[in-house]
Request: fold
Amino acid sequence: MRTFINPAELDLKDENVISIKRISKATTGGRAMRFNSVVAVGDGNGHVGLGFGKAIDVASAVNKAKEDAKKNIFKAPIINSTIPHELKIKYGSVRLILKPASPGTGIIAGGAVRQVLELVGITNILSKVTGSSNPVNVVKAVQKGLMELRDPLMVARDRGINLKQLFS
Reply:
């Protein structure tokens, strides 16, 4: 279950335009050109939002995507500047692996994955994308993975026990 996060309460200092593509629709009068964009916003402290927008010009598409991203902010658990556990995500034809890394490793990721992880505030992680490299689906795969993350406190709360019992 997702809880609503008010973007006005967060310091969303960063936004990244991950992808801008020109798309066309065949009409009777020829092709109608438009643009679609993918934008991520984040505070570098576990909060990130991903948005998608389409419009006739690039600036409008980016603005729509930015507003959509602010409406879809979620919190990802971060422990010692990395993720709590390994994830293997399948979204469409995208296969994504995210592994926690020791301090000093950095973000070993490419393209869209790197941009989203930087905005979340993760500084040490290993990742690999196989299958499709479509930025829209890769971003959605990263979002799905970050939403599946659970830290030890969440696991203990779901099981109705305390942290000491969880690790004994």
The chain has two domains: 7-74, 76-166.
